[in-house]
UniProtKB/TrEMBL annotation:
Catalyzes the synthesis of 5,6-dihydrouridine (D), a modified base found in the D-loop of most tRNAs, via the reduction of the C5-C6 double bond in target uridines. GO terms for molecular function: flavin adenine dinucleotide binding; tRNA binding; tRNA dihydrouridine synthase activity. It comes from Campylobacter aviculae. Its EC number is 1.3.1.-. This is tRNA-dihydrouridine synthase. The lineage of its organism: Bacteria, Pseudomonadati, Campylobacterota, Epsilonproteobacteria, Campylobacterales. Belongs to the dus family. The active site is at residue 98. It comes from the Bacteria. It is an enzyme of class 1 (oxidoreductase). It catalyses: a 5,6-dihydrouridine in tRNA + NADP(+) = a uridine in tRNA + NADPH + H(+); a 5,6-dihydrouridine in tRNA + NAD(+) = a uridine in tRNA + NADH + H(+).
């Protein structure tokens, strides 16, 4: 389902940002593979309506991968069985990289890098239970120290289809630079496809490929306020201001379709990012913070950009 010979570009799962409207936009403008926001296996099993809404996929998303997180074997198994019943999902990704405290306290996300036996058990459980075409794992270089080849080898031995590695430890959170040499070391230790993640943008994409020898790139924070990054990496050229405006308006239309009355208030955070670096950006942000009407918001976007 994913042609790794073509060095695919992935949109990273990002809480509060990689929702259906955003995924639809990046898919229109160059992203090859999209992944849902991180879904709590607990929330899924207890059928939170918000969680079920987060699972929805756009027509363009093929393949579409859902990322789940959790530290309890039985709940993860139940969550995977639920996802197996949903025809529109092509793969399941297991989050072993989230560094935030509330996830760590549940012995989930990058907490699993502190207990590789549990990591192995949970990854194996997901692989055995998953009936979808793809099973993947996303992890960091380690918890406090760097040992990505250990997780990579465990995943390969369990039959995982591909892995994504963020070039920092949990201890680093998002500080310091992403360590592409450590991703390269993990890549050299396995035969399964490896996707590089962390601080990747249009300026360094080629350098990351050259250092890591990876099979694809996963872009997260650099795509916020900049969803045309996938187009720029693929075409080695900057996007025109008129195309940027078209993309922003497309994003807003997708938000209205998906969130209806809540779209205007949710879209403000995106407009804050889109307007960065523009003249009179702070006045624009101040203005849109007071707008609640979709038609008025659209007019302001058209005038500003």
């Amino acid at each position: 389902m994913i042609n790794f010979n073509k060095k695919p570009l992935f949109l990273a799962p990002m809480a509060g940002f990689s929702d259906l409207p955003f995924r639809n936009v990046v898919k229109k403008f160059g992203a090859d593979v999209t992944i849902s926001e991180m879904i709590s296996s607990n929330a899924l099993v207890y059928e939170s309506s918000k969680t079920l809404h987060m699972l929805e996929r756009s027509e363009l998303e093929k393949p579409y991968i859902v990322q789940i997180a959790g530290g309890d074997k039985e709940i993860l198994k139940k969550a995977v069985k639920m996802l197996n019943e949903m025809d529109f999902i092509d793969g399941i990704d297991f989050n072993c990289g989230c560094p935030v405290n509330k996830v760590i306290k549940q012995c989930a996300g990058s907490a699993l890098l502190n207990d590789l036996e549990l990591f192995k058990t949970l990854v194996g459980t997901i692989k055995e239970t998953n009936k979808k075409n793809l099973t993947s794992v996303k992890f960091r270089l380690g918890f406090n120290e760097k040992y990505p080849e250990k997780m990579a080898t465990i995943c390969e031995n369990l039959g995982i289809d591909f892995i994504s590695i963020h070039g920092r430890t949990r201890k680093q959170l998002y500080s310091g630079k992403s360590d592409y040499s450590s991703i390269a070391f993990a890549k050299a230790s396995v035969k399964i496809p490896v996707i590089a993640n962390g601080d990747i943008d249009a300026n360094n994409a080629l350098e990351v490929y050259n250092i890591t020898k990876c099979d694809g790139l996963m872009i997260g924070r650099a795509s916020i306020g900049n969803p045309w990054i996938f187009y720029e990496i693929k075409n080695s050229q900057k996007v025109s201001q008129s195309l940027k405006k078209e993309i922003i308006l497309t994003h807003f239309e997708e938000m209205i379709k998906h969130y209806q009355n809540q779209a205007v208030s949710i879209f403000r955070k995106h407009l804050h990012e889109y307007s960065k670096g523009h003249k009179d950006a702070s006045a624009f942000r101040d203005e849109i913070n007071r707008i609640n009407d979709a038609k008025e918001m659209k007019k302001k976007i058209e005038l500003f950009f």
